[in-house]
Amino acid sequence: MIRALHRWPGLLAAALVTMLALSGAALSVFPAAERLAAPQAEAGLTVATLAPRIQAVYPGVEQIRRSPSGRITAYWFDQGTPGAAVIDPATGQGVASADPNQTLRWLTNLHRSLFLGDGGRIAMAAGAAAMLVLSLSGVLLVARRAGGWRHWFARLRGPLAGRLHVEIARIAVVGLVLSSTTALWMTASTFDLLPDGVAVPAMPAEVSGETGFALDQMVVLEETSVAELRELSFPYPGDATDTFTLKTDRGTGYLDQGTGALLAWADLTGWERVSETVYMLHTGQGAATLGLVLGLMALGVPAMGVTGVLVWLAGRRGRARIRGNQPAGRAETILLVGSEGGSTWGFAATLHAALTQAGQSVHVAPMSSFIPHRYAAARRVIMLAATYGDGAAPASAKGFLDRLVAADRAPDAPLAVLGFGDRSFPAYCAFAKAVASAAQAKGWPELLPLDTIDRQSPQDFARWGRALGEAMGIELELSHQPVLPITETLTLVSRRDYGAEVQAPTAILRFALPRATLWQRLTGLDFARFTAGDLIGVLPEGSAVPRLYSLASSRRDGFIEIVVKKHPGGLCSGQLTALEPGDTVTAFLRRNPGFRPGRSRAPLILIGAGTGIGPLAGFVRGNARRRPVHLFFGMRHPDSDFFYGEEMPAWRDERRLTRLVTAVSRGARPHYVQDALRGDAAEVSRLIRDGARVMVCGGRNMAAGVAEALAEILAPSGLSPAVLKAEGRYVEDVY
Ligand SMILES: Cc1cc2nc3c(=O)[nH]c(=O)nc-3n(C[C@H](O)[C@H](O)[C@H](O)COP(=O)(O)O)c2cc1C
């Protein structure tokens, strides 16, 4: 919701807001320039001294005005001809033309009304309102992204465009909120929507009828310093009933031209003071430095516009196009999607198109936007839910389960849950299962029993589609064409071979980093940004199904590295392990945010066996901050498959690796990585009690053995792998 509130006014008003910001930034320079250019009155100069000085030079003077910048202007009549000049208060002489600056006038008109009169004023006010909505929703988004208000200035991560957007926002937002609020106030005032609250003194009933009292003798003018003067108007020549009008920062009064006496006075009202402060805060008139600061902040707006659009476009990429999406309140079928990598959106698009063609009205949305009472016309709800990590929710379903649990009651429209997963993961479709059981616990009626799709199989999907059609009483043929992510061609630069002696030929393959386009660099898409533990999907020749491998390097290392074991009869591993430098493969990047060491300084316990060392070695290599890292590594024989054995001593010398414990499974006394953990139980337990994070990578059996060993080791301290997992301190990348 907040994101939508930030995005749509942002896109719609981008041009208007940019125009406002740029013209505002240009205008902000003028008060400061005027202050520098105008001769300023010396301290303590009173109006009683200044006025006669000017009158001596311009006998026909009828008004003296002082602007908030300190510039003094005199207006006079000379033999019936009006004249005006900027005055040097030291001499009373005119020193510059008082004609308004044409550029300033043009910019002010553009800024206020786009030269379109009241219509333009309303449009610009709408722009200011959009800027206010953007600023406030942006504040909430920044706080949410940073993890709370206290982390407002926390270091940012992620693609460059997103970081720039937030970096500028968190500095400029104060000025933008101030400028847009004051703009709205001033527009309301222009259209008389606010009371003017101006106090004018009553016209004096009686005047002396005399003229010619010396200006420098007038007590009130002696008591008024030039610094607080706004305006002194002279009486009409020859009219003995007229008076001097004096306006100062304190109020307005009338002076008798024959006696110099103060005939009437009215103080500025509180309301006038508020209005003037708002005006000053918006224009910088009287606060030139503040004006410049606000102008600089306004310059952030176009930059945020460009980076905001980039972030938005990057977020849309990979998401299938859904045409003719119906509003949630009117749709008969509500289709909610839980996806991380984007492929489930493709299935949702296929289902949406097929249902729409069958005459249904369908609303598609992410599961995270689940709001049960909005589905007023719904006759069924369908959820397509992928699973990540160890049965965790994918990005677009974050918070769904909490919302379902917190809801008063489940919707009446029956539910069908379809899980998307991969049977090679131990927690197969676990998130979809969790959704189905939470729905059941809530008493949500069932449209179809829980079903699952393995590895994005179009056949599984078509089968489920027929069951759905039957339940709905329509014919439904779902023919899904999976859309592959954008791939790159990677060129092998080197390979290191291991494992031949232990019948497990394995290669560490290093590929050149593909050159990133400016767009990729700004948005962090594809291989423009990746870290060890992310995945690459390799498309082997002769198959459209990608195989995923964990990355053993980060972008910063300057290469892409994976560890591949040749499986007997394995299509992809066979092709990869046969590559020679110069050969190429087709691959894409898939992020794996659930398997990252995090930025904490707490010790890391890395546990892996065989090719599972890949991402762990990448973490060690990237440990420039010398975080304590304890690596437990299981291999068959140190002479044949001690991957990264050559680098380990250097990593230890550089303190990227604190300790290496190896376990060798071939030999007289087979020793596995879980045995190594048990052998080091006291130290492992101490590290975990002190907050260490555990990361496990490798085969499923090894991971199960490790969890069992850790359960034993931790039992005396009341901890367990399950507790650590719940705390996010125990993560696995298992295959
Ligand atoms: C890092 C990673 C972790 C995964 N974890 C699981 C899992 O624990 N259980 C499962 O059934 N599938 C798992 N999968 C498979 C995805 O759920 C499956 O590929 C799904 O179709 C992806 O949908 P999406 O592209 O819409 O996110 C995982 C995939 C990746 C890349």
What does this structure look like?
This protein is of the alpha/beta class. The chain has 22 helices and 24 strands. It has an eight-stranded antiparallel beta sheet, covered by helices on one side. A six-stranded antiparallel beta sheet has the order 17-16-19-14-15-18. It has a five-stranded parallel beta sheet with strand order 10-9-11-12-13, with helices on both faces. The radius of gyration is 37 Å and the shape is elongated. The two termini are 37 Å apart.
Can you describe this structure in just a few lines?
This protein has 22 helices and 24 strands. Bound molecules: flavin mononucleotide.
Feature tags:
735 residues; alpha/beta; 21% strand; elongated; binds flavin mononucleotide
Helical fraction: 25-40%
**What structural category arises from helix and sheet content?**
alpha/beta
The count of strands amounts to 24
Task: Provide the β-strand percentage band.
Answer: 15-25%
Q: How far from one another are the termini?
A: 37 Å
Main sheet overview = 8 strands, antiparallel
Number of helices: 22
Multimer state: single chain
| Structural shape | elongated
Bound molecules: flavin mononucleotide
Low-confidence stretches: none
Mean pLDDT: 90
**Whole-angstrom Rg:** 37 Å
State the strand order across the main sheet.
4-3-2-1-5-6-7-8
How is the topology of this model organized?
Elements: H1 2-12, H2 14-27, H3 29-37, H4 47-57, E1 61-66, E2 72-78, E3 81-87, E4 94-97, H5 102-113, H6 117-146, H7 160-190, H8 219-222, E5 229-233, E6 243-248, E7 251-256, E8 262-267, H9 270-283, H10 288-316, E9 333-338, H11 343-357, E10 362-366, E11 380-386, H12 400-406, E12 415-421, H13 430-441, E13 446-454, H14 458-472, E14 488-498, E15 506-512, H15 518-523, E16 535-539, E17 547-550, E18 559-565, H16 571-577, E19 584-590, E20 604-609, H17 613-621, E21 629-635, H18 648-653, E22 659-664, H19 673-679, H20 681-689, E23 693-698, H21 700-714, H22 721-726, E24 730-734
Parallel strand pairs: 9-10, 9-11, 11-12, 12-13, 20-21, 20-23, 21-22, 23-24
Antiparallel strand pairs: 1-2, 1-5, 2-3, 3-4, 5-6, 6-7, 7-8, 14-15, 14-19, 15-18, 16-17, 16-19
Helix pairs in contact: 1-6, 2-5, 2-10, 3-10, 6-7, 7-9, 7-10, 19-21
The structure holds flavin mononucleotide.
